[in-house]
Amino acid sequence: MSTETSVPFPRVSGLGPADSALLETLLKEAPIGFAFFDTEARFQRVNRTLSTIYGRGEADCEGHTPSDVLAPAEAAAHEAAIAAVLSGEAVVTGDHQFVAACQSDSTTHPRWAMSWFPTHGVDGAVNGVAHIAVDLSDRHKVEVALRRSEERYRSLLRASNQIIWAAGPDGHINEDCAEWRSVTGQSREEYLGRGWLDAVHPDDRERVERAWDDAVADSTVFDATFRVRTRSGDFRHYQSRAVPIMRDGELVEWVGANTDVTTQREADEMRHRLTQQLGEAALRTVRLQKATSDLAEALTVNEVVRAMAEIGQSAVGVDRTAVALLDRERLRLRVLNPEGVPDIAGVRTRESGLDYPNAMTMAVRERKPFIAGSPLEMRALLDDHPDVVTFLEHTDERAWVALPLLSAGLPIGALRFAFNRPRDISEEEKVFLEALAGQCALALERATLFEREHRTAESLQKSLLPEALPDVRGIRMRAFYRSGTQHVQVGGDWYDAFPLPDGRVAGVLGDVMGKGIKAATGMSRVRNALRALAFSMPEPADVLTGLDRMFEATEREEQITTLAYFVLEPETGHGYLGNAGHLPPLLVAPDAAPRLVETEPATPLGMTSPREHHKFFVPPGNTVVLYSDGLVENRKRAVASGLEELVSVASQAPAEVVGDPQKMLEYLVEGMLAGYEQDDDVTLLAVHVPATEAEPDN
């Protein structure tokens, strides 16, 4: 057996008296067998043809089950088919050969095609089974095959929600289609001709009608997807496909099928929306990660403001970004952007009280995002305040988002985004902007702390350096110090110069490795110890030896300290130089190439080794420069190449620079740091012996 779908048997109650009589005659006299079973598998009606096939009278069948009427094999087949239909099968068919009781030659009897279908009550529920038996002799085989084909075709159409329709060669509908009309609610007259187009969505009609006209004109396949208005007023998506039927080279008609693809279309749209939402979420995540990275690199408040302006433009698409800090004592917001915020006509507001009506003050007061997608929303949210109305009359901004910058739940400022066009902010965008504001708050708090500590560190650093260099007749001394921009802690670079009791002058430049209080205190101890040693035994070898002993007693081994120390006779430029693992001094002459004052390699302080000093001469008109490694070494330049570059830069110094120690220091710093990021302290000490005796420099 196999199953097929079928249209329920017509209900007699829906027919007129004449039609009912005609149907009764057909049931009795038709050459096809008919029977109706109730849900208990009992015969309710049997026509003459079928009772003859069974070899029974009509009355012998009615009220009985197949087991009461038929042989066991046929009865079992009938009951199985009836049970299958009652359990939900749309149609059950099979071939049987019946031999009547009065006939003995079974070979002369034809086979009959048996079909069972569900019957339905007024409420649409299955209330029985209809049975049809068709002669499969030669004269019926074609009809049976066609009927089966039609049944299967209808079953497939129902399974695929298809509506079959036909049109004439001119493209006009000339055959009724009940299925289409049941969907659209059109009458037969409204449907025929080109009336079916009236049910197409107005936005789709012109396109569909043009495609249908083109297909009819060119006798090509028509294929279109459009929305159809249903009888309930809703719209469903249908895919329509029609092919031209050609006969002897001429177009005779069109046959098409409309398939309801609403579910598929909605699933596709849902999948597209989900894909788009996932893509947007992934993009927002990437943008937030990028923003977090950019803000992490912003060390100062101004850098945070610049980073937020770039993030607002690239990640949010805003036209203007502003960041403000809250002064809790004065209850005022101070805008950090140099251009301020145009909240007052003709005035770029830099500061406003929390009682002033604008987006940022509202966000801070309420501690939640303030969003106005249009000027009307802004006026409504701020109660049509006169200042707001004036602002809206003079600004090109049309949408605003302000978010509080919170730290430990308390506001420290506000972040403001403005758009030059109305803008709807989705919930997903709102979540993203709140996360962005959180990162901005962290960066702003970190930058504020950095600047405060950086100022403290610079003050501490300068307090450990001499307030002024001594005025010594016969020489000119200048110093330069610049803290590394990437560090907030005090460094270990230092310099000093002082006159000795014997009339000579002593100078030193050193570097205690590391940062922070540890390096600063180490620098202070070495500086004080060096001064004390220099006044009692000023020669460099003796001073370095004494510093080694002090270092072993008070400093840790990992506290590496280097220095270059010299004593010089101002009148002659002669002296001695001691070097404890420091970079060689640079000697610059007006009439000769600059050179490094190389000495025997020596170890840093605390690494016990015999200390020596070497003769040191600064000819008149020459300048000797001591410097820290921050001048020649950085992340992109090694010490060796930095020393070579230092000599090269010094060789290009103009004459007026060589004769002025202050200009010489500035020239060297500018030339050596150009194109590099300063990542360490830079310290220099220059001693110039004038060509002719000059008055002490003031």
From TrEMBL:
Signal sequence annotation: none
Gene3D superfamilies found in the cross-reference section: 3.30.450.40, PAS domain, PPM-type phosphatase domain
Any matching Pfam family: PAS_4
Source organism, top-level taxon: Bacteria
Protein name, UniProt field: SpoIIE family protein phosphatase
UniProt domain PAS: residue ranges: 149-219
SMART domains: GAF, PAS, PP2C_SIG
UniProt-listed InterPro entries: Bact_Sigma-Reg, GAF, GAF-like_dom_sf, PAS, PAS-like_dom_sf, PAS_4, PAS_fold_3, PPM-type-like_dom_sf
Source organism of the structure: Marinactinospora rubrisoli
SUPFAM superfamilies to which the protein is assigned, alphabetical: GAF domain-like (SSF55781), PP2C-like (SSF81606), PYP-like sensor domain (PAS domain) (SSF55785)
Transmembrane segments: none
This protein's UniProt keywords: Hydrolase
